[in-house]
Every structure is written in C-alpha cells, then in structure tokens.
C-alpha cells in the first residue's frame, strides 16, 4: 500500500512538472493542511474526513490535519473556512447541510455558492427507514398504508432541526402527504437507544448508524432511500419499489476551499482527493460504514458545484413547504 | 462459553506484553490529558485515531479505552490541587478535595481518589463481564419519562437537603438551569439567550463555565488579598492515608461504586448524575455532615469511586448494543468501525477475543493506573510549593489552552473570563458554584426528557405516574421533600452544598 502511494506521488509529481503553474502553486503544499469538519469528533462526517485525510496526507506528502469546529448546525465551521485565507491550507469537508443552510438560517454569514471553491464530491451515504422491532407493519407497503392511516399517532425520531434524519422524514412525509409526530433528539445515537428500547416507532438514518442493528434483527428496516438497493443490505427494498417514485436521498459529502484559491491548487487537491478515494483502505473502511467513495468523475469541482446548486434549490422548496426554520 | 473460560480468553489477550504496553500508553496519556482541563479524552482519542490504523483491533481499542478511563483518574488531580475541574464529576471532587488541599491534606485526597477509583473500576469491570447483556436490556426500559423522574429526584434530593442557605442554593440551581438554556432549542430551532451571537447557538461550553466559576474565581479571590493568601501554604502533613482515613472512606467507596455502576449503565445521561448522587448520599448518611464542604475525605472518595465505576459501566451499552452513552463512546464506535468492526449486539459472539480482551484489559489498566498514580501523588503535591505568582499564570494559561482545544473557538476564552468574574462575585455574595453547575448540567437534560416524554405521550402528563419505574422515582423524590419538611426530622437535616471559605 505504501509503495503504491509513493509511486502515485512520483507519477503525480512528474505530471505536475509538465503543467504550467505558478511557482507558488507548484510548491504546494509546503506545510500541513487543515480540513475543518463542522461537527464534533466521532460523528459519521468526522469518520469519513479522517479516512480521506489520512490517504490525502500520503499523496500530498504533507500532514492533513482534521479540526472539529462544531456548532450551529455546521454553519459555524463553514463560516470560519469561508473567511479563511484562500491559500489552500484551510479546507472544509461538509455534508448535505451545506445546501440546506440557506433555507434554514435567515442570516447566514456565508454564501455556499459564492464563498467556496468546490474541490469534489467525496461520498454519498444512503439512508434507511427503520422502526422498532415490534412495530406492526411487516413490509414497505404495510408501512405506507399504516402511516397514512395513523398519521400523528406514529412517532418519528430525528436529530433536530436540519439534521439528515429530519430532512429524510420531511421528504418521506411530503411524499405520503401525511404528518407524523416528530420527536427530536440530540443526535441519532440517543434516538437509536430509544428505538431499541421501543420508546418510539420510527426513524430514518444513515446506514452508518443502522446497518449493524438491522443485521442483528434489533430493529426493522423497511426501505433504503437511494434509487438502487445497496450492497450491505441486499434484502431491503428501495422506496421507489414501494411506489414512491423519485425518492432519492443520500447524505452527500463534499470538499471545499475558500473562494479565491489558486486554480492550480484546486486541481492538485482534486487529484489528491481522487487518489485518496481510489485507495483500497479507504474503500474498505467506507464499505464498513455502509457507503462507498464516489467515482473519480464525481470527485471533481464541476460535479460538486452542480450537486450543490441543485440541492440548494430542492431543499429550499422542501424546507419552505414544511415551515421549518433554525432561527 | 461460561464466564471463566471467557475471562481466560480475555486475559490471554489483555496480558499479551504488546497489549499491556499499549494499555499503559493509553492510561498514561489519559492521565496526562485528564490533568489538563479541556484537553479531554474526546480530543485525544480523535487525534490518535489515525495512529491506531496500523495496530490490530484489540490493541487499538485497549489503548483507546485506557485513554478514556485514565482521563477519569487524571481529572480529579487538578480539581483537588487547584480547584480546576475539567468535567462535571470533577466539579464534585473539587468541593471537598480542594479544601483538603488547602489544609495540607492534598496527598490523602489524591490517594483516596486513586484507591477509590481503583476499587470501583475493578468492581464495575466485573459487573461488565458478568452481566453486560441483561443489564443493557434493563437499561433500555428507561425512556424519557424515567429519565425525567430520575433527574427530578436528583435535583430534589440536593435542594431538600440544603441547609441554611437553602434560598441561595435554590437560586444557584435556577441560575444554572437558565445558563443551561442558552443556545438553540433542539425541538424548534429557536435560539434562546444568544443575543444574536452565532457562537452561542450550541450553548455555553461546560468546561469554560466550570473553569471560570471554580478555577478563575478562586484565583481572583486569592489575589485580592495578597498577604493572607494561603494556597497550599499549610505544610503538607502526610502523603498517605491514616488508619482513620481508611476507616472513613471504606463505606463511601462501596456506596459510590454501587451508585456509579448502576447509573453508568443508563445510556441517556446516567453517568452525569453519578458523582452528584454519591456526594448527596454521603452527606446525608454521614454522622458529621457539617464537615462536608470543609475537607471531608468521604466527599472525595465517594464521588470519585462513583465516577470511575460509571466510566467502566458506560461501556455496557456500547459493547452489547452498539449505542454510545456520551461523545467519547461515540468516538469509540468510530474507532471500532475504522478497525472494520461494527459495534452492535453481535460483537460479543463474533469477536469474543476482542470483547473479553477489552474487558480484561480494564483490570490491567486500573492496576496500571494505581501503580502509576500513587507515586505521582508526591510529585503533584510538590507542585503546590511553586510560588503562587508563578503558579497562577500557568493555571490560567493551561485552562485557556485546554478550553480552546475543544472547539477551536476563541469565544470560549471570553466565556472563561466572564464566568471567572461571575464566580468571584458569587463567592463574595456567599453563593456556591456547585449547585449552579448541577443546574447547568441537569437543566437541559430535564427539559429535553420532559418535552420528549410529553411529545410521545401526546400531551398526557399521566405518563409519568403510569409507568412503574417513573412512578417509583417520583415517589422517592416526594419522600425526600417530606423528610426535609417534616419538623421533627428537620433537626437532622444536612447540608449538601456548602463550601464555606
């Protein structure tokens, strides 16, 4: 593995000798790089970032340090990177929250489209619709019928305003045109505890958090939120199979630099990200998390910019329709 | 597999010299970071995660677990020596531990904390080995109504037993509750008391608050009277426990172990209550409650034991159900996943060497900790002989570095300064910071569980009395109030939070 990375480094170094870049960018990186994660240590986003950072360190020949700047639904850390010196030494790894923040926060200290240079998509984590073990419905069809019939008598856990689990719930209720009782938690960890204890009925959460419990038969899984079934849970149908066409939700993660960063540096970082995502160790660890690295053609600035723009539009509508606001 | 062959397997893993070495590295690092307020196990484990890639899963997790419970040991050191608690349980230790240090009894205080922790850790680990799966199942029957009632009980026991300054203690708890409300309401997203400051959306930082009202306030109080200052100036009498000390700490350590072990299993915040609960219990049961707050060794030994027992048993929900009880456990889940193991109900069957190895390593780790810490007592106590004009800037500096390391947020440093001043004013007004911290820690939990229970019951308050565990806890709370109010028992009423200076 080490040998392979060293080889890649040599190839990349040789390659960069042929491209004409400014002297400043050519030397890049000459000091450790910091990737800011706008959430606390230990969460899924943090884990993803640490895996990628370790692989990028090998490729770039400089230490890539992960710094957790949590708070205010990720907007604190993102705002800090937006205001950072655009020298390529301070980056941001943020998830879907980057696209929901404009709709959730009336006064956002940054503009996701204008204040960042996208580097590339990193991963898309599928979500699963799960319920307590003794919840009545057996299949996805049963569940849809049951939720439509019982509406607010069904309790539904989420991790608070703007969390992936809440967004998934909003989309699900929107698709069924029904309202369930939302029960917020401080993160989906405690929510999972209550689901295991049968205190609440349902939840929608990333595979990262649910796969082991599903496999152990401790909770029921009704559906995955992606257009295709996923490898770790081959028996769980998609929502489209249950008749909810166009339901497509994955918690996508992207890597960004502050706006104004040298194009050559962005190019170098994109290459490094692609190398990291192709790393065998990263792939295996991602698989354990129930996800996968995006293909190289998605780990590009263009793909991330397109994703971000589309998602800002989508969530703007969903969040407005649901009447949710973080301030 | 029966328990003994399982433990045999566990010890064969844990006693592997390589694993013992990494266990030692873990507890040593944990002790060091525990000593610094702020630079806690969360940051340390997060920083060390990449290093553990190259280790095999058993070794990596043994080391990371060692950091966690090692930090629980280390955290008491600064609380006792310089009144600088880095977490809520250490705040309890600071009450009597620091008073002991002022009386020249820092050595016995540190030794009592270390021995109590060792005993509690060993017993709790045995519980973990013998009863983990059924205990975890039982803990799941605790829903929001039960947690709400448990916290009500905790708060009422503390209030009801307060004496003399009951009004001030009550006021401090309420102030703590209010401070705990700062930040975004998780139910509606509405910012409360944030004054438009985005930094306050996540709420006030506990470490900044604790360091301010305890540590910095104490420094201000010491500096105001330069000549009569007395930090650690009383000659150090002895480093070790006397026979009388041993007699006094035996029962508190036992009770603390039981309280901590039980509360630690509850994944919804039980471990937070353990030190407070033990302190209340010791003061209530003591024949000399008036000594509490003035350097009672029981007030150090009990809570420290409870805290360490809870630290060990909080691994139960993680290892048997795959659910984290607090942020450090969430990080441990990350570490499991990075090693290719998904924590959950299957770990015990699929990875017996790992499961039992980690448990056995906790005995090894606790033993290493006591061997490591007891000789250090002398060294730590020597630290108090450093001239105060050198010591206090260093304390302020370390407190700031530690706090900054949590969120890299300069705002937290301003918060330390602000709460340092607030804490100083409180001391001047004769108010005690411990009830304030109790309110600050328990307030948000109380609100969260009350509202969640009401949401799930669809607005029906009867849920609190219809569920048997919740009803029993509320009945105990009522009994605590009655005992305090009944006049013939009032004479025996004891003080819980008194920190005269």
Automatic annotation (TrEMBL), chain B:
**Keywords of this protein's UniProt record, alphabetized?**
Membrane, Transmembrane, Transmembrane helix
Looking at the UniProt entry, the stretches that span the membrane are: 109-132, 200-220, 253-277, 323-341, 353-374, 386-406, 413-430, 469-489
Where does the DUF112 domain start and stop, copy by copy?
21-438
Q: Which InterPro entries match?
A: DUF112_TM
- Which top-rank group of organisms is this from? Bacteria
Q: Name one Pfam family in it.
A: TctA
Does the keyword field hold Transmembrane helix? yes
Protein name per its UniProtKB record:
Tripartite tricarboxylate transporter permease
């Amino acid at each position: 593995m080490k040998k392979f990375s060293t080889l890649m480094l040599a190839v990349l170094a040789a390659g960069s000798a042929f491209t004409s870049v400014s002297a400043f960018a050519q030397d890049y990186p000459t000091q450790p790089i910091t990737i800011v994660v706008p959430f606390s240590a230990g969460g899924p986003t943090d884990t993803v970032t640490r895996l990628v950072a370790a692989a990028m360190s090998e490729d770039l020949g400089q230490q890539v340090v992960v710094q957790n700047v949590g708070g205010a639904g990720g907007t604190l850390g993102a705002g800090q990177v937006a205001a950072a010196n655009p020298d390529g030494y301070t980056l941001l790894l943020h998830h879907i929250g980057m696209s929901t923040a404009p709709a959730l926060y009336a006064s956002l200290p940054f503009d996701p489209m204008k204040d960042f240079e996208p580097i590339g998509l990193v991963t898309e984590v599928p979500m699963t619709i799960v319920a307590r073990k003794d919840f009545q419905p057996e299949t996805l069809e049963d569940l849809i019928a049951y939720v439509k019939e019982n509406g607010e008598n069904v309790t539904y856990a989420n991790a608070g305003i703007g969390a992936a689990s809440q967004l998934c719930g909003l989309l699900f209720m929107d698709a069924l045109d029904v309202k369930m009782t939302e029960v917020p938690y401080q993160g989906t960890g405690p929510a999972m505890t209550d689901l295991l204890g049968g205190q609440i009925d349902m939840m929608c959460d990333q595979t990262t958090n649910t796969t082991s419990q599903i496999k152990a038969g401790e909770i029921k899984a009704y559906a995955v939120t992606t257009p295709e079934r996923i490898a770790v849970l081959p028996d769980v149908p998609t929502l489209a199979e249950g008749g909810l066409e166009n339901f497509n939700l994955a918690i996508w993660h992207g890597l960004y630099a502050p706006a104004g960063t040298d194009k050559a540096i962005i190019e170098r970082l994109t290459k490094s990200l692609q190398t990291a995502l192709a790393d065998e160790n990263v792939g295996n660890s991602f698989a354990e998390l129930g996800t996968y690295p995006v293909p190289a053609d998605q780990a590009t600035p263009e793909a991330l910019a397109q994703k971000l723009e589309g998602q800002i539009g989508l969530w703007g509508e969903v969040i407005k329709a649901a009447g949710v606001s973080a301030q | 597999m029966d328990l003994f062959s399982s433990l045999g397997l566990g010890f064969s893993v844990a006693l592997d010299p390589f694993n013992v070495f990494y266990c030692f590295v873990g507890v040593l690092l944990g002790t060091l970071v525990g000593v610094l307020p702020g630079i806690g196990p969360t940051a340390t484990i997060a920083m060390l995660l990449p290093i553990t890639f190259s280790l095999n899963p058993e070794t990596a997790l043994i080391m990371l677990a060692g950091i966690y419970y090692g930090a629980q040991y280390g955290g008491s050191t600064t609380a006792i020596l310089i009144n600088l608690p880095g977490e809520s349980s250490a705040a309890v230790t600071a009450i009597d531990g620091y008073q002991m240090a002022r009386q020249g009894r820092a050595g016995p205080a540190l030794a009592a904390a270390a021995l109590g922790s060792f005993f509690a850790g060993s017993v709790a680990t045995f519980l973990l080995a013998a009863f983990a799966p059924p205990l975890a199942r039982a803990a799941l029957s605790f829903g929001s109504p039960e947690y709400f009632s448990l916290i009500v009980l905790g708060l009422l026991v503390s209030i009801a037993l307060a004496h003399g300054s009951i009004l001030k203690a009550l006021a401090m708890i309420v102030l703590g509750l209010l401070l705990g409300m700062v930040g975004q309401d998780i139910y509606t997203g509405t910012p409360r008391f944030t004054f438009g400051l985005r930094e306050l959306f996540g709420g006030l930082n506990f470490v900044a608050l604790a360091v301010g009202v305890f540590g910095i306030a104490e420094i201000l109080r010491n500096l105001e009277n330069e000549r009569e200052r007395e930090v650690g100036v009383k000659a150090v009498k002895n480093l070790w426990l006397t026979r009388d000390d041993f007699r006094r700490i035996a029962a508190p350590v036992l009770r603390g172990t039981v309280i901590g072990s039980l509360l630690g299993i509850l994944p919804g915040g039980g471990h937070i209550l353990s030190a407070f609960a033990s302190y209340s219990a010791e003061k209530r049961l003591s024949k000399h409650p008036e000594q509490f707050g003035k350097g009672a060794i029981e007030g150090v030994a009990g809570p420290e034991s409870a805290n360490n027992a809870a630290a060990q048993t909080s691994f139960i929900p993680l290892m048997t159900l795959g659910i984290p009880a607090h942020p450090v456990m969430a990080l441990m889940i990350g570490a499991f996943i990075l090693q290719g193991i998904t924590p959950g109900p299957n770990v015990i069957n699929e990875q017996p060497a790992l499961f039992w190895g980690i448990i056995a390593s906790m005995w090894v780790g606790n033993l290493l900790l006591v061997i490591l810490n007891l000789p250090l007592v002398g060294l730590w106590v020597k630290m108090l002989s450093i001239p105060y004009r050198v010591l206090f800037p260093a304390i302020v500096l370390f407190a700031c570095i530690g706090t900054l390391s949590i969120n890299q947020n300069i705002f937290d440093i301003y918060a330390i300064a602000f709460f340092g001043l607030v804490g100083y004013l409180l001391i001047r007004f004769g108010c005690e910071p411990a009830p304030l911290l109790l309110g600050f820690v328990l307030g948000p939990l109380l609100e969260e569980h009350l509202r969640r229970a009401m949401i799930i019951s669809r607005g029906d308050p009867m849920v609190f009395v219809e569920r048997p565990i919740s009803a029993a806890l509320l009945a105990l709370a009522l009994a605590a109030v009655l005992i305090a109010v009944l006049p013939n028992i009032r004479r025996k009423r004891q003080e819980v939070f008194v920190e005269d200076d």
